[in-house]
Amino acid sequence: MSFSEEMKARSQEAWEKNIHHPYIEELVAGTLDKEAFKFYIKQDIYYLKHFGKAHALASAHSDDFKLTVRLAEKAQKTAQAELTVHEQHAKALDLADFKAEDFSPAPAAYNYTSHMYRCCLFGDVGEMIAAILPCYWVYADIGAYYADQHPAEELYDNWIQTYASDWFQSSKNEMIQIMDNLAAEASDAQKEKYFDAFHKAVEFEIAFWSMAYEHEKWYSER
């Protein structure tokens, strides 16, 4: 079992809660409230802007030139590809004028991006990648698990097929390989930090679905 597979196995309970979250199951069934999806799209556009920056920070910290170049490419291409899909969704949801730069995120989105930045500020490249990896892997697993489901709502079907696509599955596999390569050179203490960063990100993925499903607000707004 690879190091990445070990991390996933240790996070299995949280992993299953992602795959079978009510937000996901209702999206797949085509019954998800459109306002919940709209809430999610706005939050995820905000998240992806920072997801790309986290790749760029990991790239800058790497001593391996090939990895530096590859992470820089992923900072641009992967995040931008997802943003392009979301921007198409945004237009369909009458959110064409939405700008992440002027947006105040919900607590879960803010906390998740803050976790990534904390790992980038205080961790090594392995910890940075560990914090980024669950976004690839959880979404890829959701896409693969529900690939044969085609909700009548075209927006929802398009969302599922984006993450079920060969392109996204390949991107996930590449990030797993990067993680395993870094772990092969790490001490046991470092690898435990990698797991902590990874597991927290898996938990934040659950929080992100709940945030959209419940239209999460800051405490003073409740």
Q: Can you tell me the CATH superfamily?
A: Heme oxygenase-like
What is the CA-atom radius of gyration, in angstroms?
17 Å
Give the SSE string. HHHHHHHHHH
**Which spans have pLDDT < 50 for at least 5 consecutive residues?**
none
The helicity comes to over 70%
Please tell me the CATH architecture by its name. Answer: Up-down Bundle
| Overall strand count | 0
What overall geometry do the principal axes of the alpha carbons give? globular
Secondary-structure-based class equals mainly alpha
- Tell me the CATH topology: Heme Oxygenase, Chain A
Give the domain tally: 1
Termini separation: 45 Å
What's the main sheet like? none
Under CATH at level 1, the class stands as: Mainly Alpha
Q: Average pLDDT, to the nearest integer?
A: 93
Domain Thiaminase-2/PQQC: 10-214
GO biological process, one term: thiamine diphosphate biosynthetic process
Keywords: Hydrolase, Thiamine biosynthesis
EC number: 3.5.99.2
Walk me through the structure.
By secondary structure, the protein is mainly alpha-helical. The chain has one domain (3-214): Heme Oxygenase, Chain A (Up-down Bundle), CATH 1.20.910.10. 78% of the residues lie in helices and 0% in strands. The chain is built from 10 helices and no strands. Helix 4 packs antiparallel against helix 5 (65-92), helix 4 (34-61) packs parallel to helix 6 and helix 7 crosses helix 8. The protein starts with a helix and ends in an 8-residue tail after the last helix. The mean pLDDT is 93.
